Amino acid sequence: MGTATTLHFASLFTPDGWCRDARVTVADGLVSALAMDTPPQPEDERHAVGFPGMPNLHSHAFQRGMAGLAEHRGQGEDSFWTWREAMYRFVHALDPDTFEAIAALAYMEMLEAGFTRVGEFHYLHNAPDGGSYDNPARMAGALAAAAASTGQALTMLPVFYAQGGFGGITAGAQQRRFVTDPESYGRLLEGARAALAGLDDARLGIAPHSLRAVTPASLREVLALAPAVPVHIHIAEQEREVADCRDWSGARPVQWLMDNADVGADWCLVHATHVDRSELAAIARSKAVVGLCPITEANLGDGVFPAVEALGQGVRFGIGSDSNVRIDMTEELRLLEYGQRLIHRRRNCLAGSEGGSTGRVLFERALAGGQQALAAPSPLGLGSTADIVSLNADHPSLIGRSGDALLDGLMFAAGQGAIDCVWRRGIKWVEGGRHRNRDAIRARYRMTLEGLLA
Ligand code: NGQ
Ligand code: ZN
Hints:
By secondary structure, the protein is of the alpha/beta class. 37% of the residues lie in helices and 21% in strands.
């Protein structure tokens, strides 16, 4: 047993609400005692405001390396689909080493942003010629290494990708690094499990890429390979995808999924942007989590998720940084609310009942949804990993605030700049807003990008 340390927070936000004078004792990375209304003891490390780290339920870490590189007009109209072409070109150049260097930067920035677990929707499995690496989980291993060197907790979601589009269209040359069949996918899962074996708090799930990329039969086979683990899928992100799904099946994507798979609380429907009322009701009944990625959905021109209707129906949600064009927890939640304000021309759209704080509702819902979707330990529970964020209470946008007004101030005024320390499994990886390995991780990233973009 290592020695225990105790953190004292004048204000601590927990899933049960705000607590004053909270002492959190951490032993071997886990919360071993929690006491409220207790003044600080001389040996305590003192902080003003703390809250649980936020899960980031959807990331493609490598896309951090192309952030901002697809913001100029091409020929004709730019869209999600033209962005995807640029992404495919970038992906082609990556190898295990460059992949790891980019992921390390992304995972470090996630910690600095207050994200203490990432759901990595990982599909870059194969070598550039489309053949499997000697170890089929070679690239998954690179992600595990990035998680280890940054302290980030990882829920690895190896992706199953079988076809280029609805109706059995063969995957194109640009997609060959993603493709497996159900049998080789089974080996990949085994390899990924081995890659995670030495990593603290890692979880493994599965991820059929999208209804576009799987056949009904292969989807069933893959779901049967790994029962009782998180299942993540991209769904109904683009209007063209909805139209193609209807042409193929007669049903909208979410409707098709609900009719053809046993969608329950272990599922995460990523985006689910284009859903109608009955689809929202079905998602609510299923207890599945919707994985919202507001910054990426804005960047890619996907559309706006009907969040007011969804929350009204009791749909669960979490947030993800997806393309990692920006890595900012507060910005994701703020943009989720602002999209609704712009559409409905009202304020505090997602605050719930009268008197509700928008910052608090967004924060606590995303915390619960992210935890569920990533099979994460309960935030700040006894015996859970000590994954905690503290704020710099001297930030101008936080001065004089207490309780929910701190979350409103963080989300709408201060932004990520107010984050002071981040503990992951009891280790203070971020202090004064800086990750302890920032210089080395940035230096490696710089060399990597200079090589890739040369
Ligand atoms: C992805 N990203 O897998 O990275 C996708 C693009 C696709 C988003 N959907 C590729 N945001 O969906 O076919
Ligand atoms: Zn995605």
